[in-house]
């Protein structure tokens, strides 16, 4: 048990750090997906009948215009961002990166700023896929998640935290 705790709290080994970043990121992504899809289903409709989760759970969604779906895609992602980014910050500080490169408030501010920029870029990629290619919410969400993950890891490792 002591060895497991040591591995979980190790922040200097790049290989272990990347594995933990991936696990923590996967957990935060799960939170993001849950919040995003619930908002897109229940509050700001953006899902269509061909979305994977709609088919998987046999959900009923009303038809919606593409222009409304694009706006609601953005809104759903902002709501999910607020929740999942807090989870990601807490997990990253606890298990992945060494805090203290900046003051706590500056660190949190940079974390949210970098995340907001990467989510903004990813969300616009997803919105473009919906608007220009008529792709599903699910596919557009995955494109957003991949681009966001790549940008965030580099910025968090080299700008926000102590590698």
Describe how the helices and strands are arranged.
Blueprint: H1 2-9, H2 14-43, H3 52-56, H4 66-96, H5 104-133, H6 137-160
Helix pairs in contact: 2-4, 2-6, 4-5, 5-6
List keywords for this structure.
163 residues, 6 helices, elongated
- Which percent range describes the beta-strand content? under 5%
Query: In whole angstroms, how far apart are the ends?
Result: 26 Å
Structural class: mainly alpha
In helices, the fraction of residues equals over 70%
| Number of H/I helices | 6
Order of helices and strands: HHHHHH
Number of strands: 0
The value of Rg in angstroms is 17 Å
Uncertain runs are none
Shape verdict: elongated
Largest sheet at a glance? none
Total domain count? 1
Q: What do the pLDDT scores average to?
A: 88
Give a structural overview:
It is a single chain. The chain is an all-alpha fold and about 160 residues long. It has one domain (about 20-160). The chain has helices at about 1-10, 15-45, 50-55, 65-95, 105-135, 135-160. The protein starts with a helix and ends with a helix.
